[in-house]
Amino acid sequence: MLINGELVESESGNWLSSLNPANEEIIGRIPAASAADVQRAYLAAEAAQPAWAAMTPLARGGLLRKVAQAMRERGEEILHLEVIDTGNTISKMRGDIESAAKAMEFFSGLGSEIKGESVPVSADNLHVSIRDPYGVVGRIVPFNHPIKFASNAIAAPLMAGNTVLVKPPEQSPLSAGILAEICRDILPPGVVNILTGNGMPVGDAIVRHPGIKRIAFTGSVATGMAIQRAAAETSVKHISLELGGKNPLIAFPDMDPDKIAEVAVSAMNFAWQGQSCGSTSRLLLHESLYDAVLKRVVERVAALRLGDPLDPQSQMGPLNSKPHYDRVCGLVQSGITEKARLMIGGARPAGTQFEKGYWLLPTVFADVHRHMRIAQEEIFGPVLSVFKWRDEQEAIDLANSTDYGLTASIWTNDIKTALRVAKAVRSGYVWVNGASGHFYGTSFGGMKNSGLGREEGIDELLSYTELKSIHFRIS
Ligand code: NAD
User: Fold this and answer.
1) Against a cut of 0.85, is the pTM above it?
2) Whose CA is nearest to atom 12 of ligand 1?
3) Is 25 exposed, middle or buried (0-12, 13-18, 19+ CB in 10 A)?
C-alpha cells in the first residue's frame, strides 16, 4: 500500500491472496488494510493537500504527465500482471494501459478550466464565484479494469487540487502496487494514498470518514446504494456513482444482418468475458432481421477462441473470481429455467486446460422476454440476451424496460429514426451506428440506477470542486 509516500503493510499485519482466475494459482498477496490504516492515510492526505492545491495548475499537470509517462514505460510489466490477475485477454488489455496514461494527460491540460464567473446582478457589488477543491477525496474502484480505473480515479481530483485515497478491487489488486511505486517516485508524499483490502472494512471506512466529503465510486448498484446509506450516517457528502448497465443494442430493419451480427459480438466485449459496464448485453432485433442476425451471431460466438489470457491469439479468458463465476452461472441457469432459448454456451468449456479456473463458454439466449431475470439483471458475464420487436415504440419500451440506463447503441441509416430513438432512450451514453467507444472530453455516466454524475469530461473535473460566491462591495 502507499501511505504518506511510503510503501507499507497494514497495521493489522493481515494479508489477502490474489488468484489467477485462469488456473486458481496464488500469484501475489496484498496488505488487508484496516480502519486504522484509512485514518493514517487520511491524515497524510489532509496534511499534503494545502501545498498541492497551492501549486500552479501547470506544475500539477506536469507531474500528472510524468505519472502517465512512467505508466507507459512500465507498460509491459503492468500488462502482464493485470492479465494474470484479472483473466482479461492480453491483446485487448494493452488498450487499458494506454487509457490509463491518456486519462492523466487529458486532465493534466485542463487546470485553467477550473473557472468561476462574474455575475452582474447588482450595481453596488462585484459578484464573482471561484471553485475550491474539496480537500481529501475517496475513490473506490471495481475489478474489471483495475489499472485503468485506478489511474482515472486520481487524475481529475488531483488536477482540481485535491489529495486522494484510492481503494483498488480486492480480486485484482496487484497492478495498484506498481501505480503505488510510480506515485511514490513522482508525487509529493500524501498526495496519493493507495489502500488495498476488502470493501468491508477499507471501502466502508473511507466512505464513513467524516473528513472525506467527496466520494466517487465505480461498481455495482447494490454497493453504490450501500455507500449512499453509510455516508449519510456520518455526514453530508457529495457522492458520484458509476454503476452497472443492462445496455440495449437496437437494430432497425434497414441494417445489414452481417454488420449487426459483427457489432453485437464485438460490443459484448468477450475479450474481458462481457465484464464491462458498457457491454450491450441486450440485442433488440426488428422481426425482419431476427433469424438472419441470430444465426450469424451464433456462428461468430462459436468461432471465439477461449484460452490462456496471456496468449495474444486468445479472444476470451475466465471470469474474474469464484463468487462472480457462481453468480453468472446462476443467472445462466435462470435463463434455462425461465425457458429462454439457449442457442450456444451455458457450460464450462471441454478440455483439461479448462478444468481449473472460472471458465464459461460464451453464451447466447434467444426469445428472451422482458420479465425474465436475464432480461432485467446485469449479468456482467459472457451472456447475450436476444429480443424481437415489431414497431419503434416497442423497441423503445424494451430498451427502457430495466432499472438501468448506462449506454445504448442504435443502428439505422434513417436520420429521423435515429434522432427520435436517441432522444427517447433513458441512457446516459448513446451511440448511433457505433458501440463501445469512449471519447474523452464527452461525459460518460448513467441514468436511473446506473449512476449519478458524469466522468471523462470537464464535468468530472469540476465535480471535484465546490463553488463559492464572493460579493465585493464597491460603492
Ligand atoms: P462491487 O460493487 O462489488 O465492488 C466495487 C468496489 O467496491 C470494490 O473495490 C469493493 O471492495 C468495494 N466495496 C464493496 N463493498 C463496499 C462497501 N460496503 N463500502 C465501500 N466499498 C465497498 O463491484 P465489482 O463486482 O467489483 O464490479 C462490477 C460492477 O461494477 C458491475 O456492476 C459493473 O457494471 C460496475 N462498473 C461500472 C462502471 C461504470 O463506469 N458505470 C465501470 C466498471 C464497472
Assistant:
1) yes
2) 199
3) exposed
